[in-house]
Amino acid sequence: MSDEQAAAGGEDTTPAATVIALDASAPESFDSAERAVASLVAAREKVGIPAESADDATAEDELSDEDNAAPPEEATGEDKEADPAEKPPLELPRSWTKDRAEIWAKLDPATQEILLEQDRKASIDVRNRQNELAEERKAVQAERAAAEKARQQYESQLPALMRELESVNQQAFSDIKSMNDVVKLQAEDPFRFQAWQVHQMRLQATKAETDRVTKENEAAQQSKWVEHVQAENAKAVEFIPELADKDKAERLTLRVARELLPDLGFKDSELAALANGKEKLSIYDHRIQRLFADSLKLRDIQNAPKAVVKPDLPPVQRPGVARAPGSDKAALVQSLTDKLSSSGSERDALELLIAKRASRRAS
Description:
The protein is mainly α. The protein contains 13 helices and no strands. It has helices spanning 3-8, 33-46, 51-64, 72-76, 101-106, 109-172, 179-188, 190-239, 246-264, 268-275, 286-303, 327-343, 346-362. Helix 2 crosses helix 3, helix 6 (109-172) packs across helix 8 (190-239) and helix 7 packs antiparallel against helix 8. The longest helix has 64 residues, at 109-172. It is flat. The termini are far apart.
């Protein structure tokens, strides 16, 4: 049914909707609602519809859609900022110590975020620098190891080269033993003389280099030995406090050198070589084993229980002249005799008899 027929029949009096065509340059889809509304308004203006009506119609169309029923802010929640009170507190920066937590809590969130970002960048920079230094250190160590290996290889070849040159000298120039032989060689065979001279120069240069390397190695070994002695002496002080005192340490060292070591069988030459690190001493050396045995005996003595010794003292003497044995009983008999003579009682006679018998048993 057409629109005119519907209106004549009285069924629908609503005016027919106007079809609006978008501009040919309009895209097939819009990336935002604002651009879609602007394009629709422009198209309505071309057909003579006011912009207000376009806005109202657009608003009605948007509100009729289920997806846009709610306001954009309420639908997505992305543009609406959360309440600052609901945000969890930011953690303390890694470079800050815990005693600064109170100061950190007083800062506003914006300042905290700035400080956290700076701390994060500083930590990354420090890690990068540490990694760079570690790589440089590895490179330096690798170069040193390569140089040390090359040096050792060079030094190890010097003795072999010296032996080879000496062997060639014995084989090719064994007839040249004195200066007269050299003069004769120069006069009779200049070319062989020149070869001999070059060979002697090589011998001298190789020997000088060998001597230089030997001296350097000896100096390095001596330096290491001094460091070893100092470190061991420092450890010895922990167990032997007397060594911390210079005078006591000197006296103790002299006693060891004069009394103990010679008694064990060490010679002066051996002691000097041991003191300089040139002498090697095995732990199985019989003198070292004697030291171990003596040390164990001393430890047993120190750990033995202490025996209680009773003093052997003479009996206690009372003041005055010492009485002879039995003098007390004799005095008692004499006293009872005098008493009986004066009293004449039977009781005193009985006591006198008992005292006499006791005196005879004691004698």
